[in-house]
User: Fold this.
Amino acid sequence: MDKIKMTVPLVEMDGDEMTRVLWKWVKEILISPYVELKTEYYDLSIQNRDATDDRVTCDAGNACLKYGVGVKCATITPNAQRLEEFKLKRLYPSPNATIRAIMDGTVFRAPILTKGITPLVPTWTSPIVIARHAYGDVYKAVEIKAKGGVATLACDGEERQIFDFGSDSGILQAQHNTDKSIVSFATSCFEYALSEKKDLWFSTKDTISKVYDHRFKDIFQEIYDTKYKKAFEDNGIEYFYTLIDDAVARVMRSRGGFIWALKNYDGDVMSDMVATAFGSLAMMTSVLVSPSGAYEYEAAHGTVTRHYRKYQAGESTSTNSVATLFSWTGALKKRGELDGNAELVRFATDIENSTICTIENGEMTGDLAGLFCREGVSVKRLNSKEFLEAIARNYEKNCLK
Assistant:
């Protein structure tokens, strides 16, 4: 069988620990045998980020804008313990935050549903898509330790006292955002809601944050009223704003089937909650959509350090690779759509369907084995590599004639 050819490369961003291992296996077992893979490769391992003073991360983000589609492996965001472990020059920022700031996009995360895995919230019968603002807030914050004195906030001639520490010590953090980025966030959310024909919810805490959060609320409402209200009404979908604590209560009582737009930190937290409630953090798609039309697909979880330690010790692991695999298939589908390569789109779609079929037929990794219950189907727990090989068998059986 001739391999499927690509004309424009994907931006490939390799990562760390167990997800780096899965990355290699996904390519070897499920992509390279069928696709003449064309990528521009960037090594975003913590070691290479340190060696390049994190220049490689910026280069990768700019490459995503240049080529239009990137796919990223999970990476380590170093803390004090990692600083010592890898003997790093400094505490580098989150690679995701750096890339998101460069692309100024919105992250859309959605659970991957399969028969046999029931959401922990019984009423959730349809996916809840998290739309996470991907710029600013705590991820671009400036922090200092205070050793007494008066803290002030000043900009363009205006100054406000934050707190008078007196002789006490404490901590300070300053966050920012821009109207331009908030407008891009809102526009992406409205466009995505229209494309998916789903209601859009947006929530902040403007009753407490009367300037910062209220600015988000006002921009969303203005854009909706002037550009999207009629289109939403024509398509029978709704946009509404509510406080985030009220939104959480509504979400827990809902049936799902809507898009929930959230600020950066809120979206980070709630996407993990939604993913876990639907089944697993490893069963969620994540795509960063830039206002310029560039896309970056990633796995919405960490580097699975605990499993990596077992792998290093020569032990078998049963790490779920679905989110990593779907980051690849998502990127391949988008590359195929942009390039008019129907064969590549079909291949990526078939791999996704084969993955779901494999799980629904009872072959899965350990994290799903304890959740799965489907009448007439027995569970076969597979290790990390066996699971990918099972998907390949199902793909060849059902999709290659």
